[in-house]
Every structure is written in structure tokens, then in C-alpha cells.
Here is the input.
Amino acid sequence: MAGRRHRALKGPSGQPRDDPRSWPAGALVILVGASGCGKSTWAAQRFQPHEVLSSDAFRAMVAGDQADQSATADAFRLLHAAARARLRRGLLTVIDATNVTTAARGSLLRLARGAGRPAVAVVFDVPLERCLANNARRPDRQVPESVVRRHVGQLAGARAALADEGFAIIHVVGAPEVEPR
Here is the structure.
């Protein structure tokens, strides 16, 4: 199924098509973007806290430190288990992680397919300079600049691949839609 790219048009219900309330019920929403692009801020403004599964929060849960990269494998095992349970119940589930690689998105898409739920990609098209500035302003932790640069580079490849990955909707968020921290 080819992905659709939504713009700020009105849907049949009168809601803007970029309004998450117009997306399929019980969908898996996968945020795709570099560290520092504003994914967490954007999600917090649009979804309930219990709907958002954050890789940082799961790292903090298993290691006591959201920046502890050595906890990533354990954190994602738990995140995937929570996502699987929510999707089986037909609940909207938002994955707040970079998801800039095909492998990261693929494991999540398999969860959605296994539960018979549609998947939505939300791609953050935010310039490198903005990501770096946001990252530098983080009060709790900063991602190394080299990692942010790598994510931005990987995002270009991700954008080219998304249409063939099986997303029901591909929504692109530009820098003006993401408030700086």
C-alpha cells in the first residue's frame, strides 16, 4: 500500500488532514527524525502522555538514565512489548524515537501488521542547524553533535524509502510546525 503525504487540507470531517485526530483509529504513529528536531515536543502537544512511548523514557526506566545508550536493547524490548500490547487493544500508539533507519521502522511496522493496525509515519523535515541548536538547549542531556549530523544524513535516505515501506499515511512536519525548545 503506497503512503499518502498529507498537507494542511480539510478532511471530510472538517478537521485539517494534518490533524492526528483525522488519522486512522488505533494507528501506530512512528516519529521519524534526527535528535533535536522537536519530535518529543511535537508529540506532547498533540497526544496524551499515555499514548506516547519514548525510547528515552524506556532507557530511564531500565537504567535510571535516559541518555544511557548501553540500555538501548533492553529499552527497546520493553518499548516493543508495550506497543504490541497497546496495538492488540486497538489503542493509538506513538513511538517517540529517531527511527531514521529502515530496520528500526521495519520492526515497528511488523508490530502494526501483526495487530492488524495501520501505521502512520511522521517525518520531521528540520534543518541540521535547528536540530543542533535545539540539542544544545536541552537542559537534561545533549546528544553528541556527530550523532545529530548522522541522523540528519540518514533521514534523507529514510524519506526516499518511506513510500515503499507500507505506511497508510506519511505526514511531513516542517521546521515552522515545531516550536523551538
Observations:
- The mean pLDDT is 87.
